[in-house]
Design a protein that fits this description.
Blueprint (H helix, E strand, L loop, with lengths): L6 E5 L11 H12 L5 E11 L3 E4 L15 H4 L9 H11 L4 E4 L6 H10 L7 E7 L4 H11 L7 E7 L18 H14 L3 H5 L6 H7 L6 H9 L6 E4 L3 E2 L2 E2 L2 E4 L1
C-alpha cells in the first residue's frame, strides 16, 4: 500500500541556497530524508506564471532553467537532470478539469523548483512535474486547486509549493539590511492562521491589512502557499521549520502531515 505523502510549502529565498551550505538548505535535505521516497514530485513554483490557463510541464527530460541574473557563474553551471513525468502531468490536468490545463511539451524546471529539490534529492532520481500559477484566477481558485490535487498524496506524489510567505524586496533598504517591522509581523500572523486552520483570511489576504499588502506585494511568491493549504487535511500535523525572516523575505517552511 502506498504511504500517504505529506505536503510541503518551502520558503526558497535566493537561488544561491541551492549551492551554499547553510541551515535552510540542510533543513530541506533533512525533511526529505525523513519522508517516504516519493514516486514523483508536483511542484508549484512562484517562478512560472501564466494567464488564461494553468499549464503543466509534460517534458520527459525537462531542462534546468536559470531564470535570474547577477549571480556567480557556479550557479549558472548547475544542472538538475531529474526526469519529467508526462503521465503525472496528464493526471494533474484530469484532476483540475473542467478547468483548462495546458500540457507544455518543453517546459523545464525553474529555480523555484530545482533550488529546493537539488538539496532534497541530489541524485535527481525523482520525476518532477511543475504546475504554473494562472494569474487570471482569483485567490480562492488556487486554494481549491490544491484541494483537488490532494488526491495525488495517496498516489505517492509529494506536493511541493515553493515561494515565500513574505516576499517584497522593493520596500527594503539594502544599504542598512534592516528588516522592516511588517515582515516578521505578517509572518507571525500567517503562522497563527495556518496553525488554527483559518484559511479564509489567508485566501482573502487583503483583509489582513497593511502588513499583508507590504509582505505579499506582487503575490507570486505567496500564491503557492494557498495550494499547500488546500492540499492539506484537517487532521494533518503542522510543523514549521527554517523559520527565519530577514529583510523582505520569509524562509518559513511548513510540513503538513
Amino acid at each position: 500500500m502506498t504511504a500517504r505523502m505529506p505536503v510541503l510549502f518551502l520558503g526558497h529565498g535566493s537561488p544561491m541556497n541551492a549551492i551554499e551550505d547553510n541551515a535552510w538548505r540542510r533543513g530541506w535535505a533533512e525533511v526529505a530524508a525523513s519522508l517516504p521516497h516519493p514516486k514523483a514530485v508536483l511542484c508549484v513554483s512562484a517562478h512560472w506564471e501564466t494567464r488564461g490557463a494553468a499549464a503543466v510541464s509534460a517534458a520527459e527530460h525537462p531542462s534546468t532553467i536559470h531564470d535570474f541574473g547577477g549571480f556567480p557563474q557556479a550557479l549558472f553551471d548547475v544542472r538538475y537532470p531529474a526526469p519529467g513525468d508526462p503521465a503525472l502531468a496528464a493526471r494533474v490536468g484530469a484532476l483540475l478539469a473542467p478547468d483548462t490545463v495546458v500540457q507544455h511539451p518543453t517546459r523545464g524546471l525553474d529555480h523555484g523548483a530545482w533550488s529546493v529539490l537539488l538539496p532534497m534529492y541530489p541524485r535527481a532520481d525523482v520525476p518532477i512535474v511543475q504546475l504554473s500559477l494562472d494569474r487570471n484566477q482569483p485567490n480562492a481558485w488556487h486554494h481549491d486547486a490544491g484541494r483537488r490535487l490532494a488526491a495525488l498524496r495517496n498516489e505517492g506524489v509529494l506536493i511541493v509549493a515553493s515561494g515565500d510567505i513574505v516576499h517584497n524586496l522593493r520596500d527594503v533598504n539594502f544599504r542598512t539590511g534592516a528588516t522592516p517591522d511588517w515582515a516578521p509581523r505578517f509572518n507571525a500572523t500567517a503562522k497563527r492562521l495556518i496553525e488554527t486552520r483559518d484559511h479564509g483570511p489567508l485566501i482573502d489576504w487583503d483583509s489582513l491589512g497593511p502588513d499583508a499588502v507590504s509582505a505579499i506585494n506582487s503575490a507570486e511568491h505567496y500564491l503557492p502557499l494557498l495550494y499547500a493549504l488546500g492540499a492539506g487535511d484537517a487532521d494533518d500535523a503542522i510543523r514549521f521549520f527554517n523559520d527565519d525572516v530577514f529583510a523582505g523575505i520569509s524562509m518559513t517552511s511548513i510540513q503538513f502531515g
